[in-house]
Specification:
Chains: A mainly alpha, B alpha/beta, C mainly alpha
Helix content of chain A: over 70%
Shape of chain A: globular
CATH topology of the largest domain in chain B: Rossmann fold
Largest interface: A-C, 39 and 40 residues
Order of helices and strands of chain B: EHEEHEEHEHHHEHEHEEHEEEHEH
Distance between the termini of chain B: 31 Å
Low-confidence stretches of chain B: none
Oligomer: heterotrimer
Mean pLDDT of chain A: 90
CATH class of the largest domain in chain B: Alpha Beta
Structural class of chain A: mainly alpha
Structural class of chain B: alpha/beta
Radius of gyration of chain B: 25 Å
Number of helices of chain A: 12
Helix content of chain B: 25-40%
Distance between the termini of chain A: 42 Å
Radius of gyration of chain A: 19 Å
Number of domains of chain B: 2
Shape of chain B: globular
Chain lengths: 274, 321, 263
């Protein structure tokens, strides 16, 4: 027990140092800050504008009104932003595999996956948080949400779970490169699929697709189920106030499975130049 | 200290055929071939040794050193460092090893050198006073303190190598692995690197394992060499003993006053160009003095010198087989 | 010319090398296409015609849009960035081939490989799983092909112009992303701009982006009459000339700057 705490302390200590260095790196290149400050929020402001236009042209989407969609979109963008901060490197894992960049992580006394994500922590992900929070608050107001302790807990639990689910998916996709030895990054595609499935209610899709998104690739738990629960919107699969907690559970399970798949891949790691 | 037992590793390589037709064929029906990079390798390394791995490109030396430092997972066999299996207890074992891979840096490109050291201090949980003491010791060998405030991207290659060497030793590892450390370095950086290895080995009893193509590294650093070819251990032992065994000869270089050079019954004339002739003789057969005496009885000699059989002769013999 | 053809061929072979990329890309694009199809089917559940387009035309729109996206592949911006970052620009420019000619040839090579690796499978899968994306009026085919060629050139020039920003800003990763998002959303590739409010749509019609995707797609599904389409193609052509002029002007300045400073 004490050993576990000491180890946790060690990881926290390294994490703080890594964040400090990430911030210093950003300050070294101020030109980049401006670029990302424009790029990232722009993407989501436009995304949100499109939802508005779609609602204006077609009325409700899958039975959800504009305010509810804003709430869903906001929450989804926040968990997206968190996953960008901690897990975006998963998109580029193939590059690290081909270039032999895992050598360094393997010769240091910390978890390989931890080092891979945290020594490359992407502070710029914060620029995605801002539009997410703005739209989420807007959605809360539109839906006249009562902010109770339970609601706050549901939001926090959902965000943690959703971030872990996203991270797990990135790890799964990235780890395939240990087997294929190819540096392809499917980040952009993944993003496009996630956008369509987390920013709109999955109840608008046919049942077969809903089944896949609920059980096989659990994207439905990123935003649809927890938000249905928080806003009290009925769907024909799962209902109830506990859904955000299921999201957390799904996130933890996803992470464990992804970690296992990664470890299997790492045993096949070939470094570079052989 | 280090035990390597029956180590084996295979690679699967995609078979590529030339041209557009080959590319389409590879797309629809990829073919793979298995390459045995390392085959059933076993040896032991004692504390405080400096061991050099040599062998031609693709011989398996990099693969071996990468399995020994926990980067690659062996297909068969095991590597024990201080009695612990590196594959099974990676995190505990790597606390005791340092790694320097030539041409690749573990320093953060964008920040001052000191920041990279700071991170390592946290990763290896080095106490502040210990850290300062180690840095002082290493600074005495390589004078690295003056570089601490310099951004790594502004450093010369030589300075970066210094930084990497010190970085790999900050946590006082018992074993230091170096993969082609002198590749691409200028003479003075090479000298600094060799001095560093000798000194940490002498002062801190660090066991050093390196692969190299540079015979100078081997001659200046290693008492023991391991020659690997086709993934198999060809030679393992003391450098001078291997030289004596594989190449038990010397070469006498004689300069005459004209272009004719006499033969000698106990020598083989390996080269004859202009006024200079080279005579190779077995060490246990005769001596240089005897040959010089015999030759000068026939013809007047202007100058002589002796070439020892060296590591390059060994390489030639070992790689040839 | 032979030199550039050789580059095209080499690039085709290069693109074919990684079989995983190929199958992975097809799978990903298929998933995206199918979710898009369901997305529009769901939206059209209670409406028959929105923005002058019915559900079937909209499905054709997204299948052809997916197929068209293959032609919009560019690597020129990354190539420029790399040569600036690695400091090889000056030597690259001294070579007896035009730098941008090489990049163009490489992109053409990649696209030719992609036509078979991606476009064909996408059309087949789209045709099997969603609907056969037939053209509204086959007589529009020459017009469609012409506008696709113009689209491709506009897209490539925009990419090259963005790439040239690398000469001023050290790291253009963020800018490349900005461009990507702008293109995705403002070109009508995901959502046609006729769903946008009129004011916004009018602004977008003045920008070059809609002429990359939406115009050829509109011709394909037969939205709007012939006169309107031709009027739009004139704007498309105008944009091509403007971008071409811009490209040459900036290219000229950049070349001079690099030659003077030696990169």
């Amino acid at each position: 027990m004490i050993k576990a705490f000491r180890e946790l302390g060690h990881y926290l200590d390294v994490t703080l140092q890594v964040i400090k260095m990430a911030v210093m790196t950003i300050i070294e290149y101020p030109a980049n800050i401006a670029g990302w400050m424009i790029s990232n929020p722009l993407q989501f402001i436009m995304g949100f504008a499109i939802i508005k236009f779609v609602v204006e042209s077609f009325g409700e989407v899958g039975g959800w009104n504009y305010g509810q969609l804003a709430f869903l979109y906001g929450l989804s963008v926040i968990s997206h932003a968190l996953s960008m901060i901690f897990f975006v490197q998963g998109w580029f894992m193939g590059y690290y595999v081909i270039e032999g960049e895992f050598d360094r992580y393997l010769t240091r006394p910390l978890g390989v996956l931890y080092q891979f994500f945290f020594t490359n922590i992407n502070i710029f992900g914060i620029t995605d948080l801002i539009p997410g929070i703005l739209v989420f608050v807007y959605g809360c107001v539109k839906c006249a949400v009562h902010v109770t302790p339970l609601f706050v807990l549901q939001v926090i639990v959902t965000l943690i779970g959703a971030t872990l689910i996203r991270g797990g998916i990135y790890i799964f996709l990235g780890s395939t490169s240990f087997h294929t030895r190819s540096a392809t990054d499917f980040g952009q595609y993944t993003q496009e699929i996630m956008d369509k499935t987390t920013m709109y209610p999955i109840s608008m899709y046919p049942e077969s697709l809903q089944f896949i998104l609920t059980y096989l690739i659990p994207i439905g738990w990123v935003s649809f189920y927890p938000v249905s629960s928080m806003l009290g919107i009925e769907n024909n699969i799962y209902n109830g106030m506990l859904l955000p907690f299921v999201t957390l559970l799904v996130g933890i399970v996803m992470m464990c499975l992804a970690g296992g798949y990664f470890t299997l891949g790492l045993a096949k790691y070939e470094s570079a130049g052989n | 200290m280090i035990e390597v037992r029956n180590l084996s590793k295979d690679y699967k390589l995609k078979h590529k055929e030339p041209g557009l037709k080959g590319a389409i064929k590879g797309l629809l029906k990829p073919r793979f071939e298995t390459v045995h990079a390392v085959k059933d390798l076993s040896f032991e390394i004692r504390e405080g040794e400096i061991v050099g791995f040599i062998g031609p490109n693709g011989a398996g030396k990099s693969t071996t050193i990468k399995m020994m430092s926990g980067i690659l997972t062996p297909d068969k066999g095991s590597v024990l460092i201080n009695g612990e299996d590196i594959t099974k207890h990676r995190k505990a074992v790597v606390q005791n090893i340092g790694v320097v891979f030539g041409q690749r840096t573990q320093l953060n490109w964008d920040l001052r050198l000191g920041e990279s050291f700071e991170l390592l201090k946290h990763i290896y949980q080095i106490k502040q006073d210990e850290y300062e003491k180690t840095l002082d010791d290493l600074d005495a060998i390589l004078s690295v303190r003056e570089l601490l405030n310099k951004p790594v991207r502004q450093m010369s290659l030589g300075q970066r190598v210094k930084g990497d060497l010190v970085a790999s030793m900050l946590h006082s590892p018992k074993v230091l692995f170096l993969d082609e450390p002198t590749i691409g370095l200028d003479v003075s950086s090479k000298y600094a690197l060799r001095k560093f290895i000798r000194e940490i080995n002498r002062l801190r009893k660090t066991t050093v394992i390196l692969t190299t193509h540079d015979l100078g590294d081997i001659q200046e650093l290693c008492e023991r060499i391991i020659i690997i070819n086709h993934g198999v251990l060809m030679e393992d032992g003391n450098l001078s003993q291997i030289v004596d065994r594989i190449a038990p000869y010397k070469t006498l270089v004689v300069e005459f006053y004209d272009e004719t050079a006499p033969e000698h019954e106990k020598c083989e004339m390996t080269e004859h160009a202009g006024n200079i002739a080279k005579y190779r003789f077995m060490k246990n057969d005769t001596t240089a003095a005897e040959i010089i005496a015999d030759l000068s009885a026939i013809k007047s000699i202007k100058d002589v010198s002796i070439e020892e059989a060296g590591i390059d002769d060994i390489i030639r013999v070992a790689y040839g087989s | 010319m032979a030199k550039y053809l050789y580059i095209v061929k080499t690039q085709i072979i290069k693109s074919l090398t990684y079989e995983f990329n190929v199958y992975g890309n097809i799978l990903m694009q298929t998933i995206i296409m199918i979710t898009s199809a369901y997305f529009w089917k769901a939206l059209y559940r209670n409406q028959s015609v929105v923005g002058g387009v019915d559900e079937q035309s909209m499905l054709t729109y997204i299948i052809i849009s997916s197929a068209l996206s293959v032609l919009m592949f560019t690597n020129v911006e990354r190539r420029i960035e790399q040569s600036v970052v690695k400091g090889t620009v000056a030597t690259d420019m001294m070579k007896p081939v035009s730098l941008f000619g090489v990049y163009f040839a490489e992109d053409i090579g990649s696209i030719i490989a992609l036509l078979f690796q991606n476009m064909l499978p996408i059309l087949l899968i789209g045709g099997l799983l969603i609907k056969i994306p037939g053209m509204a009026d086959i007589h529009d085919l020459p017009l469609f092909i012409l506008s696709v060629i113009l689209s491709f050139l506009i897209n490539w020039l925009i990419a090259a112009l963005f790439g040239m920003l690398a000469f001023t800003a050290v790291n253009i990763d963020a800018l490349i992303q900005v461009k990507k998002h702008l293109l995705r959303l403002l070109s009508g590739s995901i959502i046609p701009i006729w769903f946008f409010p009129e004011g916004v749509a009018n602004v977008l019609k003045a920008l070059p982006f809609v002429y990359i995707y939406q115009l050829p797609l509109s011709i394909y599904i037969g939205r709007g009459d012939r006169a309107e389409q031709i009027a739009q193609m004139q704007i498309q052509f105008l944009w091509l000339i403007v971008l071409f002029a811009l490209f040459f002007a900036i290219h000229h300045r950049v070349t001079r700057k690099v030659m003077v400073q030696g990169g």
